[in-house]
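(Deposited chain)
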Amino acid sequence: MNPPRVFISFSSRDLKYVRELMSGLSSQNILFWDYSDMLQAIELGKNIPKVLRQEIDKSEYFIPVISKNSVDPDIGKFTYMEVEYALSKGFRERDKLVPVLIVEEKPQKLEGSYSIFEETCYDEIYFQDIRDFEEALAKICRKLGVTYVPLIEAHPRLPFWKFFRDEVFELAHSRSAHVELMTIVGVFNKKFQTQAWEEALFLITHFIYSCQYQIPDYQLFYPWIVKAVCEHLLNRLDDAEKSYREAGKVRSRDPSVYGGLGSIYLAREDYANAKLNYKKALSYCPPDRNTDEKINYAVALIEAGEGVPADLAKFLLQLDPSTYYEDKFKIMNLQGSLYYLSKNYSRAISIFEEMQRENIHNTATIIYHYHSLLALGATERAHGLLREILRRDGAKGTVNELAIYQLLSELYLKTGRIDDAIKIYQNHLLTPQQVTRQNTIKYARIYKHRGEFRKMREICQQVLDGKLFPLPKTQADFYYDGFAHYLLGNMERARYDFERSLNFDSFYSEYEK
């Protein structure tokens, strides 16, 4: 069946609404003439009323867009003529009349040719509400005999999608450009939904460049935010930071900018800056819409090893994780962590066990679960947890297998199973692909507990002599060099390196308690 051709009668003052309607109709393969489009505009010297009547004659349906502008006799000279001509050609009698009303521009009274719509059923469209717009578009399609294909819903990882659409909606440009840009947005969203991050990034970048070319006066904001999200998902943290900062040039006090920057710093394990940016995002967000900001700020505080304020902890513990869909894991992990930090280990364990049953756990939740069990003296359950996770999830890559092996080796060391601890290092933690300064020093520490001090000193000296690793550069490097000096009894140098590590972890003597 060939798509119907329609004539859309509208005031040029309502163009930003009408081009959204036209974009929606285009997405349903409905044909129409748009004289606001440069390529379809009436040629210079042509008789305007004559051309309009010819286009109406070519059309199967007539859609009069009703607004305070189109019904104003001084503004709507041509819209009045179009409606009168369509009525004279029998569109109403043939049931080919599809009137719509713009709620945002609703007229106080219908006069002249438009008075007929006082007794005619028309569709009211609230263009600022995407759901209302989609429902209206579906009704129009039914009237035109077209099967409606729903517009794309936002992905949960793009909570600001509505604001993005609103921003595009307000752009002052031609209908053809709007259709092109919204087509790019639609394909982008499909790629994002299917987690095709590379293609999604290409499309949103193309959208930005298209806007900069076609609408040079448009100051992009949300497109930069969306681009940053894609870059973060691809672990291109430096690019993502640049995109967030580009958005910040347009809106310097928007929580999306600082929430995004906070996520970048959190991924870099720069907890001080993560905390700072999340706090800014929280301060710029309205109190009735700041739950996400509160969650992220609390995560940064915990990762930084700081306490969460009592009022914030109380708020977070009252949240219902099941209502947060994709953020359910984050909420449950946060609540379990808060219970652990407040030494309510039983409640923490119940949350972590539920996360395991629902298969939404990760390495961090396993670590907290493990330490909660140890805090209650449930050593065998802690051992069983680690072995089960390695058996079920290690090879799948859903948890950091090496981190779990590190916990298991520590548990063997605490329970006197030193040979088993050594085997874990030899078979898993010190392979050529995995050997690190941290694991090498902890391996040396196991030999101290075994009483093989010569072996311990030999390993520590190899690290400090630079035979295994380059000179220390990071906080972790200085920390573990200090640990080597501690094992060798060089306490003054151990404290010096500990200070250079900026207190990267607990002081070395804490490991022996």
